[in-house]
Structure formats: structure tokens, C-alpha cells
């Protein structure tokens, strides 16, 4: 991915809120590659929602920086845990996060076998 100028603050670094966009986009691409569509799952009564996010800002990203977004997934009980890191192209770790999702089945917290199958967890 690449940092766009409007994502930066007056100091010339990426505003902290934009990191959430980067990691969310990565998760969406990952789920799409696994054959999951949020819209289709919602129509079936399954909604994956963010329950908790932990973020660590290591080295700032700046305008026009290119970076690599990496993702690893584990399952802990009913939580899907996405470990997501953003690296500058020189290999420096810029950002580290842990995003926990849970599944609502017809509006209630529960297990989602379709997500489990698609994600291989």
C-alpha cells in the first residue's frame, strides 16, 4: 500500500486513525480471498464485528511511503484474532496491532462454522 497525502497530519506523518483503515482493508482483502463476503454473510444472519483493538505505533509512516501489510490469524475460543503488522519497504516495523473479532449469529454472540471453514481455524 501507499500513504496518500490527505492521510497525513500537519506534522507530515500518518494520522493515527488511518492505521485502522489500513488494517481493516487488509482484513477485508484476506476474507475476500477466502471466499467470504460481509454482505453475503450478513444476509445469512452472520456478522463478524470488532470486539477489541490493540495498537502499537513504532516508526511513523509519511506521505508517499510505501509499506507492506502482513496478517496472521488465530482463533481463541469464539474470538478470531488478527495479528497485523505494517512494514516500511526497508523492513522497519512501523505499526503492530491485534484485532479481535467475534461473530454475531442473528444478533447474538455465537460460533460461525462458515467463517471457521473459510478461515481454516
Into which percent range does the helicity of residues fall?
25-40%
Strand content: 35-45%
> On the 0-100 scale, what is the average pLDDT?
94
Structural class: alpha+beta
**Number of E-state strands:** 5
Q: What would the principal axes of the Cα set say about the shape?
A: elongated
Order of helices and strands: HHEEEEEH
The helix tally amounts to: 3
List low-pLDDT spans. Answer: none
Please compute the radius of gyration using only Cα atoms. 16 Å
How would you sum up the major sheet? 5 strands, antiparallel
Can you tag this structure with a few keywords?
121 residues, alpha+beta, 5-stranded antiparallel β-sheet, 5 strands, 40% strand, elongated
Question: Would you mind describing this structure in some detail?
Answer:
- It is a single chain.
- By secondary structure, the protein is an alpha+beta fold.
- Strands 1, 2, 3, 4 and 5 form a 5-stranded antiparallel sheet that branches.
- A hairpin with a 4-residue loop joins strand 3 and strand 4.
- The two termini are 27 Å apart.
Describe how the helices and strands are arranged:
Elements: H1 16-33, H2 38-43, E1 46-57, E2 67-76, E3 79-88, E4 93-105, E5 108-110, H3 113-119
Summarize the structure.
The chain contains three helices and five strands; from the N terminus they run ααβββββα.
Amino acid at each position: 500500500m501507499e500513504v496518500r497525502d490527505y492521510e497525513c497530519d500537519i506534522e507530515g506523518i500518518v494520522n493515527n486513525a488511518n492505521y485502522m483503515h489500513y488494517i481493516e482493508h487488509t482484513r477485508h482483502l484476506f476474507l475476500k480471498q477466502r471466499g467470504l463476503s460481509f454482505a453475503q454473510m450478513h444476509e445469512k444472519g452472520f456478522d463478524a464485528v470488532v470486539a477489541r483493538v490493540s495498537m502499537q505505533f513504532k516508526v511513523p509512516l509519511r506521505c508517499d511511503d510505501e509499506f507492506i501489510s502482513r496478517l496472521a490469524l488465530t482463533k481463541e475460543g469464539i474470538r478470531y484474532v488478527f495479528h497485523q503488522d505494517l512494514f516500511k519497504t526497508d523492513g522497519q516495523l512501523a505499526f503492530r496491532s491485534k484485532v479481535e473479532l467475534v461473530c454475531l449469529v442473528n444478533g447474538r454472540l455465537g460460533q460461525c462454522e462458515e467463517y471457521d471453514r473459510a478461515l481454516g481455524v
